[in-house]
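Researcher: Please translate sequence to structure tokens.
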Amino acid sequence: MNETASTYRNITYRLVLGSQGKVKKLVYLIGDAVLLLYLIAIPQTIAQQIERSTTESDWYGLKALYAATDGENWKINSNWDVNREYPPSPDSLAEWYGITLSDGRVTELDLSDNGLTGVLPVELGYLSSLQVLDLQENELSGSVGSWIKKLTAIVKLRLQKNRLTGPIPDELGSLSHLEYLNLRGNQLEGVVPESLEKLQKLRGLWLHANQLSGPIPQGIVELPNLGWLWLGENPDLSGVITVTDPEQMTSTDFYLGETGLCIESTEVAVDEGIERAQTVSEYACLLAEEWDALEQLYVTAGGDNWIDRTGWDFESRPKAEAVGQWYGISVEDGHIRTLQLDLNHLDGFLPPELGSLTRLEVLRMDGNPLRGVIPAELYSLENMKVFSASETELCIPTTTAAQLWLEETPTVIGLENCSDREAAPPSFSSDSDQGREVILPLWLVVGFGLLGVLGAGAALITVFTKTRRSKEPEQELIEIDRNADQLMAIEQRLEVLMDATDSISNLTQQYLNQSDIAKDFSSALTSLRNALDERDQEIKRLKRGYDNAVFRKFIARFIRVDQAVQYFIQHTESSSTQLESIHSLLEDALQECDVQPFSPEIGSDYRSAFGVAEYPKILTTITREDDCRIAEILEPGYIMQGGKEKEVLIPARVAIYRFKLEK
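Model: Translation complete:
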């Protein structure tokens, strides 16, 4: 700048030297004016260049978002001037709806529930100073591309409740400042990437209500600051989540409903009654020992041929609560408490692994073709209250330990001492054809007996015919009489045997008929149990508010009637005693359905408020800080508690302030 000033001075001196009188003075004045204008122009040009460098990239990203998501039809697009030729100034850009600036750069972009449609453009990566990106509750589709890695300053990323598809990008793992990642309620698929293990500052991860599959990387569970891990409503997620630090049971809020995921070892939290332990226990894995006991029972008792084996699947170790839905099993506090498989065609032996069911109270095996000595491991089950094995071939030895167990168990039915009958020794092979007796059908045994008797008779006749020729006539007559007597005796025995065979055949047929009746009864009982289980599940769904729109519409009718009654009470001068009693009854009915009124906080930001209706009443304000703040509650809303979240039945109607400069 000094060299330029000297140049202008030299020009001025030359002009002065070539002029005289008044001309000299005029030339001096012109030179000084030119120098002054140049000195003023330099800082202005530098300021414009700095301003352009800080806003131009942000401006391009915002323009691309506006074009890609149908900005003309957003619910609110105030001041979004995207058609201008040059980037706006920071002060002008700060007036755009949903934008917050810091040091001339866009740091927050909040367009939640604003009617955005289309896909996320790659140019969003230009917003490199962005710390909060909130585009939740729109109609965005397509995938989250690799451009996300350019948002290196991002702290909160909220894209929930859209229609996003494809996998969760690995590039999210490079966002080292990310603390909150919410992608719930989309259509994302594939696995949860291991790269998320790198997000050491992550506090909340919400991925529920998508189509994700596979296991969860263990490193995500062990992130030091993780406070929320919501993965529910992804049926294809499976595996075991291992929590090594017992304190994490209280510091981390888990949601794993409607998945195949379970938490390993919640025993400390459940037993000590730590806060939130009951919620976590819903997702506790069935203990590995109890899991193995069920699998061994299934193998040694011919599980593939059971009449009802609903739920008995050993592909992966499930939640203990899920095992409670298996046929014949009940679970309490994460442990198997009852095992009732009577009349279910269990064919084989009881495995010793059943001794691992340390909390087992009831074991019913009646009416099954089970056999052998009951395992000695069952003697250690101190909580056993009922052991029932009538109409089976199970027995108990006469040892001191066995007899002591019989005395200490309150109810034992149908279990005989092994010394009173012959018991087949159990064999626990994984092959279902091994370890079983070979039992021939009764008709085959009787047939072999008849053939033996007939064979003996034929042999006697053959001997008789051969010896007859070598005997004297008198001796032959004596032999014939003797043989005839023997044949008559054999015939009589055969008649007796045939009568016995007919009797046995009748008994066999009666047994088969009774077996068919037992199977029909068992099938009917199974159908009844399934029907009752379905009714129970339906009642649970209805009570928890998960069911469907019919239930919500039904509740909404209650609310509308209650609102009408309240209006009449408030605006009529006549007696309203009856209406007040009706209002009280309606309130009780709504409380029974877990429905309650609510009002958002006055002064809170309308854009992030929970459960507010669209198109609020607008009140003008000249205070910029009050823009979009809730000014008044016109009508309270109603919410229903359903599972982890509160569901809005009727949104609250509010009035809000909108900033407007005075003319």
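Researcher: Any highlights?
Model: The mean pLDDT is 77.
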